[in-house]
Write a structure and sequence with these properties.
Elements (H helix, E strand, L loop, with lengths): L4 E2 L9 H8 L3 E4 L2 E11 L27 E6 L3 E7 L8 E11 L1 H8 L13 H8 L27 E4 L9 E3 L13 E3 L9
Helix pairs in contact: 2-3
Length: about 200
């Protein structure tokens, strides 16, 4: 992987539906493990019944109310972690679910973490729970700063364990787009985006 720098927090301050396709081809990294983001879904907080923040601020959803650039991790189906990039201005909930990565480095560690169920490298991170397992992202990472260290003594959220990076690879000019997956409400919104033809997109 080429040199990569943290994404700027200012670039994550807009509408999740706009930021989601922009995140395609950015890099999510933890330690020696990293993958290129190839599939995402946007969630728009108070105006989106499928968002965890739809009903307002709670201890669980507090991190989603910004500012952008933090990691929101939640537990689902009693067994899986899923990772989201918080976006939007502070006080306005929004997030982008990372649905799939194309592995870039640390593949041996990913294979060990995923076990024999990942028979091919394209199976390592081709789903939101799979990529969290491959990168060892858990609830302990909820609230980490993806893009820089906090400067406020009042902000005690951890920083730096998981990073959102830009290695200069632009997002696709025409990303594939469709309805979100695995939700029961607001299913008509075409807020899922992916890199067309990428074999690591979820199935």
């Amino acid at each position: 992987m080429a040199r990569a720098d943290p994404v700027r927090r200012a670039d994550l301050s807009g509408d999740p539906v706009d930021i989601a396709p922009w995140l395609l081809n950015k890099v999510l990294a933890r330690g020696r493990r990293a993958g290129r983001i190839v599939e995402v879904e946007a969630y728009k907080g108070a105006v989106d019944p499928a968002s965890h923040a739809y009903r307002g601020l709670t201890p669980r959803t507090a991190i989603m109310f910004g500012p952008g650039g933090y990691l929101y991790v939640y537990f689902t189906y009693g067994m899986h972690w899923c990772a989201n990039v918080v976006c939007g201005p502070k006080g306005q909930a929004g997030a982008v679910l990372i649905r799939a990565l194309a592995p870039l480095r640390g593949l041996d560690e990913m294979r060990a973490a995923r076990g024999p169920v990942a028979r091919r490298d394209r199976d390592l991170c081709n789903g939101p729970a799979k990529l969290c397992q491959a990168l060892d992202i858990t609830g302990a990472d909820n609230g980490v700063d993806l893009v820089g260290r906090t400067r406020s003594a009042a902000d005690v959220r951890p920083a730096g364990r998981v990073r959102l990076l830009d290695d200069g690879t632009p997002p696709p000019e025409r990303p594939a787009q469709g309805r979100r997956i695995g939700i029961k409400v607001a299913t008509e919104e075409p807020w899922r985006f992916w890199v067309a033809g990428e074999e690591s997109v979820s199935r």
